[in-house]
Each structure stands twice: as structure tokens, then as C-alpha cells.
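Case study.
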Amino acid sequence: MKRQRSEVKRIEKTEKTDGNEPLFVRSMDVASAAVVVQVCYLFNPFGIASCIAMTTSVFHNFLIAAALVAFQSGRPYVSASVLALVSMLGLYPAVLMVPIALHYATAGGNSKTPFDWTAFCSSIAVFCSVWAGALYMIVTLSGSWQFLQSTYLFFVLVPDLTPTVGVFWYFFTEVFDHFRLFFLWVFQLNIFIFVIPLALTLRRSPMMLFHILLILIAVFKPYPSVGDAVVYMALLPIWRHLYLYIRHSFLAACTMAVFAVLAPVMWKLWIQDGSANANFYFAITLAYCTAQIFLLTDLLYAELRHRIHMTHGIRVVDESGTEAKIALS
Amino acid sequence: MRSLTRSDGRPPKWLNGLRRKANALCALLYVAGLIYLACIVWPSFNDRTYFSENALLPGLVDDEFVHRERTNTFAKQLREVVQTRYGKEYGMPHDWLLEQLESIGLEAYAQNFTAFLPGISGAVEGTNIFAVMRAARAPSVESIVVAVPFRSNTLGSIGLALSLASFCREQIYWSKDLIFVFTEHETIGMQAWLSAYHRLPISSLKADPLAAHGGAIQAALALEATDGSTPFSNVDIRYNMINGQLPNLDLVNLLVKMTEKEALVPTLYMQEDPHGQDLYTEKGYWKLAKTSFKGIVAQAFSRADSGLHSVFGAYGVQAVTISPYGKGRTKSQGGWVDIGRLLEGGLRSVNNLLEKFHQSFFFYFLPSTHRYVSIGVFMPAIGLLMGPVLIKALCVWLDLNDEGESSADGDAKAKKETKSESALAVLPLIVIAHSCGALLYFLPYLLFNAQASISTNDQQLFQAIATIAITLPICPWIIQRNLADKDFGVPSMVVLRVVALLELALIVGVTAVLNFGIAVLVAIFVAPISTITIPFRSKIGWALNSMALVLLHPLVACCVALGVYTALTVPVPPTPSWLAQRAFEQTVDVTVGFIRDSLVYQSHLYAFFTLALFPIWMMFWTIVHHRSE
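After joint prediction, the assembly is written out as follows.
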């Protein structure tokens, strides 16, 4: 019995290197990923559309990309500073500080190294101080704290209900005034509450956490736009080694394509022709949010499944030799 | 999420069943779609029309329009003026109209416009005459438009409109302004007036700004009785607008009710309703089906020639055209006064509106004047007809993925590489197909420059378009000859097929919301061919596939459809050569007409055929003519 077991283990060990190539990141993928990411960014229809509309999401995306570059090239303090600038502009990218701080704290991703709390706290401290410094500069330049009303309080209180591609406007047109504060809390907490379980699960994969939080921000911001989706869509090619486990790519891609065509049509029918109403437009933006959520959960599933296969091989066999089924519990 | 994959990441069980029975399921869904379309016309499956907007209070008031003498006088004077001044040419007497409107007591203005159209050398110039009757006791924030085109045979209608204007001027109950518009060059003039009213300039139409406005237009009624002899017996209610838009069903129902109140028979597309007891019989069914079919075709190929109402849609205004015709039996009914009372009743109902038309349906088609089929009832037909396309796309995609996974582990890497490389290799073909469509779309605008004095006539324009449309399909051949076969192996054709099928489903689905008529026609004819378009190995399969695709080429399909329509409607059986010639001439007319409509009325039909359908056709053509060695 014991010998059988040890034999099985030895077979597993040799098989580990043979059939498990698809699990590993290939060097040619790393080289080509740079070009593919660039192409995906430049030719993304949402990116081109937000350029034509001359929105400020171009600046947001640039700063987030700069923060990502600094983050990946091992300069956490630079990354924290740039992220402080983005957060100063948009408030919600502040959650991206969590993966940066985690990366600096775990310093390499090996599950054996202890969690470095000083590194974690120092990076967050740099982030907060740069943000505070920028705010102080604004206060001195503008002379008062009134800018808060037009910037952060605008995001938090959601006073303007112009239809966007998000989920806030439709709901808040219907909510009663005495429940408004309650629902504001619920909706705003949506972004921040999911960070905690995601960070705990992905504490050893800060890049994946960063990517997933980008999608989360794009979905649950009060005033999102399609320009927010450009950065995370461009980053998808870096997860080449996870493609084996992504399940809903077809569905999410088709839904995105349908959204890209149908949303302007529904808008025109509602606003210009007067034939449709808000429900038509909200339905298609809801489908867009659903597609993004599918993408998010797909990435998460693929990452977790990949971890299992990295420890047990591409074909997980139990003691009797039959292939095990891996279930998401 | 749980239902889409099983928890261990494998596809759900029903998906395997779907893939095994894919072909049978596709055929079944398509046939079910056709049967569904045939069924929804049957009265048990649709509803009787009703009024959603309670504020309309249709037909509740007693109509007071009795000015027979005044109407006749106006019409007679107009005829005399036109004949003495213009003779047979029937020019529009602008100053006479201005004078009459001012003598009635309205503010009368003229508006000049100039239109530059391809195929017509020189510019089309004209002048619209319009008069605003201000509401006596209300702020001028809303208005109702009564529009009459100036044509040789609408002189009686203009006389009626003038006398109706004088009648309306004497009443005190108006809460909205009434604007009476007499247009020259029919819908071109109407479009010029509307674009100036809403201050939305159109590039090929230079319209002078209006001297007076009347607020947001709530509804528009256009009158277009041909000068046949009164008494009329029927009133044709036309409601199809450009781009397949339809007015609110309440407005159509209102005019049907007003027509019946005057003891006239309302018709749609000159088809009378089946009589009461015939409604549930076979004879009645064929009448309903014929009206429905005419409705769908009219919505699909909506041009501006059905009446002045057709251009109001783009501005969010509900508009309908009344067209009295027919030979009445008694002299006491069906005269101009009764048409005037019909319009008066309609105007008074619209006058009662508190909000713009929003209650009733905007997406429908009408089998008869008293039955309607709403979007909830006819949209599943598109789902059933497009279901095969989507199922095929899904099955082909899953087969493509399976090819990569089912091979041995050592080959898995190689297979994945070819799959992703072939997916990228197919991208140039997609870009080329869409560029061809874009070229075809922009060609008329390149050839026709409004500012320069270059003008082409119909024939030249059509020849240019046809040449490009017929020679472009050679591109895929050239590309495939020059590049190595490794780049365009069969897997890349399969990826192209998935892309083309998905794009077709997307285009038809989106168009179904905008213009149901064209979507259902495209779904019926294109869907079955697209599912069976594969790179066949055998010669016969290739030949049949090619022939089917050639028939589907937009120009060829247009020619064939017009040929069939001509053959069916001409009383004498025609010779094939005459038929071919007629079909060709009509194709030229239709194509140039689409281009003109897109310039003047912002009609999207030409863009639909060139930017949306032609690239998909090119992709299928590429798939069929793929060389596999």
C-alpha cells in the first residue's frame, strides 16, 4: 500500500513537468504580451470613442497605467504617489492601493515569506501623505474648501442623475427621499466592501487583484464611462496562461459587442425619437455591467483554478488514479 | 452563473444535447419563425386597437366645420390663378397664397430653400408658405401642424386647408398654435421647413431660417387628396415614416375613428378591412395578411413618397397623412366638408393633449385599421428566425475549442498556437470586408460634391456603384492567391464564419428595434443561407453555395425582388427580356433614390445595405471561395 502510494507520487512528480506546459508562463508570451496589450489599447473602440468625445478619462487611464508600470517595476513609493494623484481626481481608484501595498508587503509572492507590515503601512502612508499634500495645494490655490462640494461630495452624494453606463442613475430616480441616504451608503459601500475578501483571497497575486479591482471600479463607480473599461480590457492579454480556464469569454465578448452597438441605438430611440423610454437604455447598460462581472468572476476562477493545478498538475488524479473534478464551492 | 457552466468548469449538459441536434434544431426554429409570422396576423393572436391616452377624448365634440362654399371658392380661385399664371406647368402661386392667408387673419410667411441632389443637375429651389394661427388664450409653447403639398392634383386640398384655417381662426378653444404649411417639391420642402424650425441644419439642403415659430410640435396632419371628384368614399391613412419609424398608435387610431365618424371607410395601403363577420374566416385572413405584408414592406423600404408625414419622424413629431380617394355613392357624404370635419375632429382631439404622445405603442404593425400587433408579439419572430444563426455560431465556436482540447497533450500547445494565430490572421479579411462596405457607402458622396458644380446623372452614379459592388468580391480571391495557404487554413475560415454569423445576428437584432420590416425581411432570406455557407469540398456544394450567395448580393437581390414584384403586379404576362429591363431600371431608381434619401432625409437604408449587410456578404463570399489544398 505504502509502496503503491509512493509510486503514484513519483509518477505524479515526473508527469508534472511533461504535460503541464500550458500552465506555465512562456517567455515568448511575455515578449508578445507587450505588443498585444498596446494593440488592444490603441484599437479599442471604447478608447477611440472616449478620445473622440475628448473626455478626461484619458488622463485617468494614463495615470493608472503609470501607477501600474511603477508597481510592476518595483517602485512602490512612486506607484503610491501616482495613485494618490488618480485618487485625488477620481476618488475610487484609491482601492488600487491595496494590491500595491500587498505586493510591497509580500515582496515576491512566495507563500513562505512573512507578511511585512512595515512595508504595507509605509506604502499606504506615502499614498495618504501625497494625497493630503495635493489636497493642501488645491486648498491654497483656490483659497477655500468649496471645491469639495464639486468633486468628492459630488461622487459621494450623487446629486446629478444624468443617464450613464452605470447602475446608479436609474435606481436613484425612483428612490424615496427618506431612503436616499441609506441606499447611497449601500451603493457606495459596494466598491469598498468587495475589496476585503478579494484582497484576502488574492494576497499572493497582487497583479490579479489590481486587474480585478479595475473591473470592479468600472462597474460600481457612480459616474462610470466606457473609457474606464479601456485599461482593464487592454490588460487581458497578460493572462495568457489562464486562458485554459476562462469559461465565459464567448458570452462576455458577445455581450460587449451587442452593448457597443445597441446602447447608442437605445439612446437615440429614447432621447431623439421619443419612441423608447429609459428602460430600454438601462437594460442594455445593465447587460454591459453583467458582461463585466462575468469577466471579473472568470478571471478570479481562472486564477484560483490555476493555483490548484500548479500544485497538483494539469490532470489532478486522486489515489485511485481517476481524474478528480475540481468544483468551485 | 451556475446554469451556464457546471461547477467543475465543464459546459452544462444541455449544451451537449444542443450540439448534437444543432442542424435539426436550426431548421426547426426557422420553420417555427415563419409559422409564427403567419400566425400573429390571425385575429385570435392579436388585439383590437384602443385609445391609451385618455386626454384625447376622440370624437366627443360636435364638429362645426360647414364651410362648403368657402372651400369651393378657395379651390376655384386657386385653379384659376395657377392656370392663368403658369398654364400647364402648375407652378406654385406664392404671393396669392400669402395674400389669402393674410386676409384670413393669420401671420403668413414664406421660406426659401435650395436642395442639392445627386442625379439632378443644378439645384432644386423652392419656397414654402406657412401661416401661424396663435392660440388666443394660451402661451405659444406647443403647436399642431397641418401640411399640404403643392402638386397639380392637390389644389382641392389646398382650398380645404385655407378654408379650415379660416374656420380655426374663428374659434377660441385652441390651446396650441396651429401652423398651416404649404410646401413646394413636397417632402423636400417639408424637410427644409422642419430643419429650419428645429434649427438642425442638413448639409445638402440650404433652408432659410423661419420668421416665426410655434413651440414644440405635438402632432402633424398632412392632407393629400388627389383632385379626383368628390364625393370620396375611402380615406387612406398613411403612417410609415423614414427609417421605419412609426407614429404613436393613438394618433393612427384617432384618425381611423374620425374617418368612421364621417361615414367614410378608413383603409391602410388602399386595402379595406375585412368585414365584421369575415374577420375569422380564411377570406378575412388573406386580407389581413396582405395588409400586414404591405405594412412590413412599406416600413422596410420607407421612402419619402408616401406623404409629407414621413419626414417628421426624425424630429420626434408624430405625423400621419390623410389621403381621401374613391368614388362615393351619395353626394351628401364624402365631400370636402366631410374631410374638413375629419381634420377638425383630429385637431380638436390633439388640442386636448396635456403631454406629448407617449402612452400608446411606437413599435407595431397593423393588419387592419382595428387590429394591431405590438412589439411584444412580433419580436419573438426575429428571435426564432435568428436563432439558427446564433446556434450555428455557438456550435462552430465550441467545435473550434474542442479541436484544441481533444488532441493529445503534446499537440495541445501547437493546436492552441494555430487557433490563436488563425484568429488573428482572419482580422485583415474582416477589415477588408468592412472597408469595401465603407468604400461603397462613401462613393456617392465622393462623386457628388454639392459645392462644386460637378453633378452626375442617375445612370452614371449607378454605374459607378454597381461597378464597385460587383468587382469588390474579387478582392478575397486576390488576397488568397497571394498569401500562403498556411495563413488561411481552414481553422481561420471557421473563425471568420463565427464572426460573420455573430455580426449578422447583431445587425439584424439591432435593426429589429429600429426598423422591424427590413429586419424580418433580411432574417427570412439571409438567415438560412448564412447557416449553410461553409467552405465546401465538393464541386456541387461549392457551385450551389456560390449561386445562393450571388442571389443574395444586395444589388442582385434588389433586381430579383423588383423583377418578381413587377411580374406579379403587371396585368399582362411579360416577356423575360422586358422584365429584366424593367427590373434593372427600377434597381437604378431604387439605388439612387436611397442615396438621395440619405442625403436629404437622413435615411439610413443605403448605409444599412452598404455598411452593414455588404461586409457580411463579403465575409460569406470569402468563406465560400476559400481555396483549401
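Observations recorded in class. Chain A touches chain B at residues 18-19, 21-22, 245, 247-248, 250-251, 254, 257-258, 261-262, 265-266, 269, 272-277, 280, 294, 297, 301, 305, 314, 325-329 (CB under 8 Å). Chain A has a mean pLDDT of 85. We will return to this complex in the next lecture.
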